[in-house]
Write a structure and sequence with these properties.
Blueprint: H1 2-23, H2 47-56, E1 64-68, H3 74-81, E2 87-92, H4 95-108, E3 114-118, E4 131-134, H5 138-151, E5 157-161, E6 172-176, E7 179-185
Parallel strand pairs: 1-2, 1-4, 2-3, 4-5
Antiparallel strand pairs: 5-7, 6-7
């Protein structure tokens, strides 16, 4: 009696368990979201601050603007639509934000002048930029500083909403709707960036 009950139980559970294991993808094929988790929370820059950043950077026709942590694409879109940049590129680690930004660019009619790349901003090639915009965190800005100095051409302008760059003194600093915006200019090779006081 006991043996037949156990046999019935094995038949009932066994095939179902085997099927579930076969149907589930192997652990190695599951996405590793921890590897792409953003270091900076998504908080959109208000539109007046976007315009203030791009104005402080002096964005004009011929400029190529890179926005690191581009979110919904508002800075990239405004750079070409409102300030005449020839091209603008957004980099964001979150594929949902990239998709949202692409949709927003399409609605704004600037999709031919902008590009949104999904990836880690520390892996992005920034060498084509004439302007870089940031709304990150102080620690991220400081870690990014060597990359900016190594990859960007002399004269490239960098603007940051809200946060400075540690010991690299900004060339200008202004308030836009109560928010601080900083501007730096990449120095000539061999020149030291001005130190913050």
């Amino acid at each position: 009696m006991k043996t037949s009950s156990v046999l019935v139980l094995l038949l009932a559970v066994g095939p179902g368990s085997a099927w579930a294991q076969q149907a589930a993808p192997p652990p190695s094929s599951a996405p590793d979201f921890s590897a792409t988790a953003p270091e900076v929370p998504y908080v959109p820059t208000p539109e007046p601050t976007v315009e203030g950043m791009l104005s402080l950077a002096g964005v004009k026709p011929g400029d190529v603007v890179y926005d690191l942590g581009s979110g919904d694409g508002r800075i990239v879109i405004s750079a070409v639509r409102n300030h005449g940049a020839s091209r603008a590129v957004g980099v964001d680690i979150n594929p949902e934000r990239v998709k949202e930004a692409q949709d927003n660019a399409r609605r704004a009619g600037v999709e031919d002048q902008v590009e949104f790349r999904q990836g880690d901003l520390f892996d992005a090639d920034l060498s084509g930029a004439t302007v870089v915009t940031l709304y990150l965190l102080p620690t991220v800005n400081e870690r990014l500083k060597p990359k900016l100095l190594a990859e960007l051409k002399p004269g490239t302008r960098i603007v940051s909403h809200g946060f400075d760059m540690g010991d690299w003194a900004p060339e200008k600093q202004t308030q836009v709707d109560g928010r601080t915006v900083y501007l730096w200019v990449v120095p000539e090779p061999g020149a030291e960036p001005p130190a913050a006081r």
